Structure formats: C-alpha cells, structure tokens
UniProtKB/TrEMBL annotation:
InterPro entries: NAD(P)-bd_dom_sf, Sc_DH/Rdtase_CS, SDR_fam. It comes from the Bacteria. Gene3D superfamilies: NAD(P)-binding Rossmann-like Domain (3.40.50.720). This is SDR family oxidoreductase. Keywords: Oxidoreductase. It comes from Erythrobacter rubeus.
Length: 264
C-alpha cells in the first residue's frame, strides 16, 4: 500500500515507547497520525510535535474507543494504517508462596480477567473498530486494499517466563487473532499482522540503566546480536514496512535480536 501524504493513521499507546516512535515514523512518511492514549500531557505534546492529533482513549472501554475513532476520523479522515500498542495487565505466578500464611495462594481469576481485557479483548476491540471503518471506505489501489492493521504481541507469547501467565498467554492470544481475522477481512482488502518485540529500550527499561547498571549490562549481553536492547525506531521501521508491503498479511513477526527468553 502506497503511504501517501495526508493518509490517516491511528496509533494506540502513541504517547510513549514503541507507539511514540511508530507515530513519529509514520508521520515522517507524510501520514496524519492520531494518537490514542490516556497520558494526556505526553500525548498532546507528541501529537503537536509530529503534526498529528491526540485523543484520550481508554482501550478497555468500548464507548471511549468508539468516540476516539469518530474523533480521529473527523479530524484526519478514515485511517488506512492502525497500530495497536497500548495495553494494561497484572502479573503473578499461577500458584505463589504467601508469606502472610506460610502456605500457597492462587493468582486470582479477577487478575487474569483484568489482563485478558487489557491485552486480548482490547486488541480485538481496536482492530475490529478500525476494520469496520476501513470496510466502509473505498479501496486505495488496484489490489482492492483498504488498510492495514498491526497488533503488538510480545516474545512472551512464545517464551512466557515465570510470573507471566497472564501476559504470555494473552499476548499469545493476540497472535491467535491474526490469521482468522486476516481471513475474515480478506474479501474487504484489509490486512492484519502482529509484531512480537523482544527487549526494547523504552523509558521503562531505560530507568534500569541508572538504578541497576549490572542488570542493564546483563540484559544487553543476553541478546545474541546485536548485543543491545532494541531501539524503538527499529520497531517503528518494521511497522512502516508492514504498512507499505501489501503482501505481508496474516503473519506474526519476532523482532528480538534472536533472543529466546529463559524461564526467569
């Protein structure tokens, strides 16, 4: 799909980290980017910096998401590129030791449901709402393409570590959405893919550099090659290529420097 000047895009979680870099990368290609986030100050600042728009959207709330899409389309037109980075979850072992009782305790079902809503259900919500808008728009090329949707999974989808039973399984579910959704949307010319980032130098990880330099060095050394954390711009580069290349469909990409995560 040719990414033309003024084409609309939506990036959830675009106020920070991988979403922020991707919003900037798409804007550099001439796209009008709508950032969905709940960090209003950072979101508004970044949107202004890249010539886009900011919309306060809670991805776990249906009405908030619907309103966000309507506002973004009113400002920029129908999005042709959607990247879903935002998520919320909890962590914990299935069964863990309870210091208070000296016995064992179970990870509450409510905690699991919270993560499933914040990762898996939200991914479906954003992807399906975007697909509906794309389906009701005209194709942009001779292939009949109407748009590209990219979801963010994680290497934890395949290498889930101790304490990641929620995160790992729900990110695996994100990958599980890709092929059936791509097939559901094939007659409409809408592509669906996902990316599984490894360890990236997001603000959360960069904070470790000063707090625990030894662990920081160990993390960098754990990546086979290149021996460093991924740069958010490298994630953004892949997002742009997925949007550009019309033959990329129904695929899950690992972007991880060949790392395979150990149990812990």
């Amino acid at each position: 799909m040719k990414l033309e000047q003024g084409m609309a895009a939506i990036v959830t979680g675009g106020a920070s980290g991988l979403g922020r870099a991707s919003a900037a990368g798409l804007a550099e290609l001439g796209l009008k980017v709508a950032i969905f986030d709940i960090n209003d100050e950072a979101g508004e600042q970044h949107a202004a910096a890249i010539g886009g728009t900011y919309h306060h959207v809670d991805i776990t709330d249906e009405a908030s998401a619907v309103e966000g899409f309507a506002a973004a389309r009113a400002a920029n037109g129908q999005e042709r590129v959607t990247l879903h980075c935002a998520m919320t979850s909890k962590r914990g072992k299935t069964i863990g030791f309870d210091k208070a009782t000296g016995g064992y305790k179970r990870l509450p079902t409510e905690d699991y449901a919270f993560g499933a809503e914040g990762i898996l259900v939200a991914s479906y919500r954003i992807a399906s709402l975007s697909a509906l808008g794309m389906a009701n728009s005209d194709p942009v090329n001779e292939d009949g393409e109407r748009g590209a949707i990219t979801l963010t999974a994680s290497v934890a989808a395949q290498d889930g570590q101790i304490g990641q039973v929620i995160y790992g399984s729900c990110k695996s579910g994100v990958n599980g959405l890709v092929l059936p959704m791509a097939r559901d949307l094939m007659d409409l010319g809408i592509r669906v893919n996902s990316v599984m980032p490894g360890i990236f130098a997001t603000p959360l990880m960069l904070g470790m550099k000063d707090r625990n330099p030894q662990m920081w060095d160990q993390l960098n050394a754990s990546v086979p090659f290149p021996k460093r954390l991924g740069e958010p711009e490298e994630f953004a580069s892949l997002i742009c290529e997925i949007a550009r290349n019309s033959y990329i469909n129904g695929h899950q990409f690992r972007l991880d420097g060949a790392i395979r995560m150990p149990p812990k």
